[in-house]
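DM from R.C. (forwarded with permission)

"hey, sorry to bug you on a friday — could you get me a structure for this? deadline for the figure draft is monday and I only need the backbone to look sensible"
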Amino acid sequence: MNVRLGSLALLIGGLAVIVGAAVAGEGGVLEAIVSPPPVLRAALVAVMTLGAIALGRASLARFVVAGAAPGTLAEADPVAMLRGIRLAFLSLAALAAAAGWLLASPLPLVVAGIVAAVDVVETSFLLLVVGPVQARRRPDTE
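My reply, with the result:
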């Protein structure tokens, strides 16, 4: 992973946590986000559910590419595994957001925001640490 890209993802995740904390205290803004008109809520639920399915499939594909199978995790590519884990948690966050709009409840939306932000920050940090270490361990192919 490019260090600049990882740093950018880390910065965006951190900003998302700060913005989420600021918006959580504003009742009017939170109500407008949680309870949009019914047609828009239905569209948001559908988009988030389809997004969660797509993210889940992409996560499984990353695990396959990494070589993650029962009994072979020691040989799996840790960078690809971390990217698969990131996608799995983003899929969970999308499902939580869909539940929040389906129920018109702020709690699942707050949970979704926290899960997504923490996931991006955490996996970005891990990729910044593991990526260079993994690159040094690979034998030269030249």
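R.C.: lifesaver. Residues 3-137 form one domain.
me: no worries. The chain has a mean pLDDT of 79.
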